[in-house]
Fold each of these.
Amino acid sequence: MRDLKHLIYFDNLLQEANNELVRQAKEDGKIIAGYTCYHMPEVLLDLPGCVGVRLRAPLCTSPDIATYYMSGRTCHYGRSLLERALEGGYNFLDVQFATETCTVTTRFQEHLQMMDVIDNPVFFCEFTDVPFKKTANSIDHYKRQLEGHVLKPLSEKFGIDTSDKALLAAIEEHNEVCRLVTEIGDYRKLENPTITGYEFSIIMLVTLVCPKYLILPKLRETAKEMKTRKPDAKPNFRCKVLLAGSENDDPDFIKLIESCGALVVADRFCYGSIPGREEIEIKEGESPIEAIARHYLETGHCPRFMGQNEMRERKKYLADVAKEYNADGIIVESNKFCEYWSYERTIDSIVLPRDFGYPVCSIEKEYINTASGQLRTRFQAFVESIEIKHIQEGK
């Protein structure tokens, strides 16, 4: 396929957290707010005068110093974030909005708060409690947490307008990003998709780590470009897969999967678009902050929600997504020592084949992709097993 016009530019933006567009927003006088989890609503951090940046640890090779503080038996993702912070990689942040969701990222953000790591005199870290259930009471609690630990600090410390009018403007901008990313992602549903999982992951990631108002023009151009993009005459993949799991912000991991013949057509993982790029709907009688709290709590499919009904719902959701995107199999990955996703991955590897008929490849990996040879062998074997299954079924 013809190369996408802005793909190399997008990829370059992912090479450092303080990328070109973040620096431009800083020069424009914007407040830069960091976060690590879907349950810190990015739309609140993109209020007029503020820019939300979801933290990654690009180019981190070995979190040796962070391991001293956090131990080697904690998730590589959290340690890699702390390593980059200790190296000065997040000094551009004015505030870190933390969520008490994942234990290791909570510890990372506690270190930011206690160790005076960020070289910025105005920097502070604010924690928000996220409920473990999705009831009406949980949504109300979540709303009050967001009001007290996000909107109030933004208003009092930085003078950010947090009125309903400002929230509606942020929702409108957020929804446009969601529409464009969804439109681009829908080309993965084609029999012969006109976008690869690698390309889509880059596009999705730049919407999380770049100022929306600066990335939107090129996102619009890309969506327009996709309307006329032609697929390869002969598909260069042997099967299609859904990739699910924990924090995955490395497009090269997806490129590795696709080099083994498995086209990644759906991204149900942290930093992915399913969920992540659903438009926020304000229902009748709801205030903007109520709609935001309900939206993020109801759409979240994180394994931290441990009720049996939520667990069963997540398995069906995965199977439904696989069907919608015409996936032949599902790869479930978890970062080593990730408590939530280690359990989830184990259960998925049993339930999805047994109850829904989808073959599953279960992978435990490091946040930094160093074992590419071993992973390649696993993915190649998985692709071959799917092909054998198709032969046996007469496809």
Note: The domain at 233-393 is CATH 3.40.50.11900 (Rossmann fold).
Amino acid sequence: MNEFSLKYGCNPNQTPARIFMADGSELPVEILNGRPGYINFLDAFNSWQLVKEIKESTGFVAATSFKHVSPTSAAIGKKLSPALKKACFADDLEGLDDSPLACAYVRARGTDRMSSFGDFIALSDECDEVTARFIAREVSDGIIAPAYSPAALEILKGKRKGGYNIIRIDPSYVPAEIERKQVFGVTFEQGRNNFKIGRELLQNIVTKNRDLPEEKAIDLIISLITLKYTQSNSVCFAADGQAIGVGAGQQSRIHCTRLAAQKADLWHLRQHEKTLSLQFAEGVGRPEKNNIIDLYLSDHPEEVTGEDVWRQNFAVRPAPFPQEEKEAYLSSVKGVSLGSDAFFPFSDNIERAAKSGVSYVAEPGGSVRDDLVIDAADAHRMVMCFTGMRLFHH
């Protein structure tokens, strides 16, 4: 098959629509179920490249959760702590510890569950039954993977009344070196971004603190590869083998950092004992729980805990979680890694990152204010690497 007709393009009024190979060769994908759309395929092809590169660079299986052509998170297959399992709504998933791939997707899905609602999933390896069982109970648009076990495929085919989008990608497929796209009838052409992100990219440490442990280097690599497939401008926080906050598509770098930091803070707060001990009212589903938790941790928790509404959400009224208590908890967070797809033009990005526990930074460098940025990193005893490589993606 060298062409696949689509129902419509980005919007219903954009017809006709299709994906095809301009050289007449076979498409590198097989649609095993459903009928993926235009945006589904944009997510599928970008997300597959991300997990493939993380696997190649780190040696770990990888998964990502995509929405509107940017990752909400990406993760490798490390086991989850009991608190993280509960925060990700996976503490009841039988066999989780025995499936690195399921661990990777549970992490990716659980990082920013609000954004992951209705996601497109990419897996670096064959989808197994445990991973499929977790996906089956989440709201998702589709999945791309190099293979599926018979049991996993049967489970996934049952999603969305049999219409779940399942794509098999040829893992050996290598695209042409030159890529093209059209905007307003004008054809753009460029070489593919084949730049390899690995440990060697982190050699140029410009701060006084030069102690970069291997597990933190892996976090930085995950952050940078995630940014390579995130709509720019973008910043990514990472910890414990996963992206924990992605700030995508912002015109200002500090807004990228603030957005990513806010998401990273929420990831930490979701694992706080007060959040984990919330007792929801009977009949409240997982998507609703996500919204309730988000509001409980917001600046206006009374929207779900107020006298007139708490019984709709909880079996037991939650204990207050004052702002000063949240800030005290977050102040204890250390060892977070931060990647940026372009240089930091001002030191305010470092100052904001420090408030969210960032200890390791990777950015291209090259700003006229690099000295001020380095000074700020030194003031917080951070390790900062200049990669010399911009990672814009549009």
Note: The chain has a mean pLDDT of 96.
